[in-house]
Amino acid sequence: MLKVLASLLLAMAVITAQAAETFSFQTVIDKARDLAAQPYHEPEPIPRFMRELSYDQYQDIRFNPDKSLWKQGKSKFQVMLMPPGLFYGHAVKVNIVDGEGAKPLPFKKDLFTFTDPELEKLVPADLGYAGLKLTFPFFQPDIQNQFLVFAGASYFRGVGKDNGWGISTRGIAIDTGLPTGEEFPSFLEFWLVHPAANSDQMMVYGLLDGPSLAGAYQFNIKPGKRTSVDVKAVLYPRNNIKLMGVAPLTSMFYYGENTSRPRGEWRDQVHDSDGLLIHNGNGEWLWRPLINPVYLQMDYLRVDDLFGFGLLQRDTGFNDYHDLGARYEIRPSTWVKPEGKWGPGHVVLVQLPTNMETNDNIVAFWTPESAPTPNLPYHIGYNISFGGAELADQDNGHAINTFVGDGNIIGGGQKKGAYRLIIDFAGASLDKLSPRAAVQGDVTGLDGTEVLEHFVEYNDQNKSWRLSILAKPAAGKSLDLRAFLKESDRALTETWTYRLPPDNDIRIDH
Asked: What residues does 114 pair with on adjacent strands?
């Protein structure tokens, strides 16, 4: 009998060990490959009344933080779950991975509180979850802080320790900005690996599907002052993709120091990000201030060997906005650093017009020069970090202000059809120079833009170096400029680039 019992216990131990090994990233990769081999099917929608909830009705369905996943354990990480409804039109599967393998997390209505008892009655017992919020104790060991959210299509949003919510990222972007229309692939299923006690890292896996491709994702997550996410993805295209956006970033720019202020607005600036930064393979740093164009504007910035790119919030003083509610000065910057060499391609900047700050109108992503081949796996890896504007670890001077005005008024110039541009540079070796140093500007007009004058002077008010440019675009074309500061033949700063379309409200004669 003892031998039989021992045999049973041994068999159970073997089964348990095998179960713990049944899940790996390869599990998700296999699912993505199988999905891509089949015709695409849209996720099953939630009941219509849930999709038609008002914003206030949806907000009144609240997850109870006391019922957070892993709250009773020793893990620093906890998970809050989100209900479908309103913007979230379908449920996603959520699985927990621990020493016993992967197990589905069933939907429980009692995890949520409802202000409206009639709505509570109508919510199905098998509704499912729309997404998840990860929490971690940033400031006090017994208080959890939300730092990463997966919800809606392939979106996920993150913050560093000192940030408020702002910019979003996505698993993939398909045909963004093209006249044929954009696809929005969605995460269908997540696997959350139970972190070890006292671990400062957490692993999440995601299965994505859309009309043009399916994909498997691994997210190695490290919260902190800079919240870091190592992403590995294996994508399976079903067909030819016109424009595939890798590591897409989505943000908002309504107006700023380089635009006019909309009528009726009292705040100096309103934006989640104020510029695109690119570190290309020749070591050059490129800075492109954002605009809110009258019409869609797409810029393809070629890179042969990308070192990194990101949308940054460089204006981080309260006096840049004066908004006690939105607190735009603490919105996070986001930086993408490739794993290995991605090869030639373009960083694409998509800028859409918006007349309100609630619309995300900025997208930036990398796209390969050669489109992925249908039915063959496409591997990509990168790190994405959320934090302050310094997270790119830039080692040269950078633009801290960009002002644009009419070049044919007092204080602007005396040239009809021209623009006056003022760029303040600071940081790195610039800060160590004498105010009398022989700093020069290197300014180039592109696509017919004529540079009429430019000069550099030290700005003792904010300890920066000011480059002033008077430039005139060709008739009917955009103002298109590149500029940097130098001492002799040594570049001191990033390359500031700017493109202002002819349809704008800067010049008085428009």
From this structure: 61
Q: Which of 224, 72, 210 is nearest to 148 (CA)?
A: 224
pLDDT tens digits for range 409-424? 998 888 999 999 999 9
For residues 320-335, average pLDDT: 97
pTM for the predicted model, two decimal places = 0.93
Bridge partners, residue 232, by sequence: 218, 381
Q: Rounded to an integer, what is the distance from CA 251 to the centroid of its chain?
A: 7
- Is the residue at 13 inside a domain? no
Q: What is the CATH number of the domain that holds 333?
A: 2.70.98.10
Q: What whole-number distance in Å separates Cα of residue 296 and Cα of residue 235?
A: 29
Residues 6 or more apart whose CB falls under 8 angstroms from that of 467 comprise 422, 423, 424, 425, 441, 443, 454, 455, 456, 483, 485, 496
Q: Are residues 195 and 318 in the same domain?
A: yes
Give the residue among 409, 424, 408, 404 at the shortest CA–CA distance from 498: 404
Could you identify the residue written with the tokens 């009144």?
Answer: 60
233, 215 Cβ separation under 8 angstroms: yes
Last residue of a domain, one of 392, 413, 440: 392
Separation CA 396–CA 373 (nearest Å): 39
SS3 47: coil
The predicted structure's pLDDT at residue 282: 87
Our CA angle for 306, 312, 315, nearest 5°, is 150
Residue 66 lies in domain: 25-392
Taking the C-alpha atoms of residue 338 and residue 383, their distance in angstroms, rounded to an integer, is 6
Percent of the chain with pLDDT over 90: 92
Per-residue b/e over 110-134, b at no fewer than 16 CB within 10 Å?
Answer: ebbebeeeebeeebeeebbbbbbbb
Question: Residue 103: what pLDDT?
Answer: 96
Q: Is the dihedral of CA 503, 505, 507, 510 positive or negative?
A: positive
Residue 506 placed within a domain: no
305 and 434 assigned to the same domain: no
Number of domains into which the chain is organized: 2
Whole-angstrom distance, CA of residue 108 vs CA of residue 461: 59
Joined together, the tokens standing for residue 152 give: 């809606």
Q: Do 208 and 185 meet the contact criterion of CB atoms below 8 Å apart? A: yes
Tell me whether strands 186-193 and 93-98 are parallel, antiparallel or unpaired: parallel
Question: What is the distance between the alpha carbons of residues 213 and 435, in angstroms, rounded to a whole number?
Answer: 56
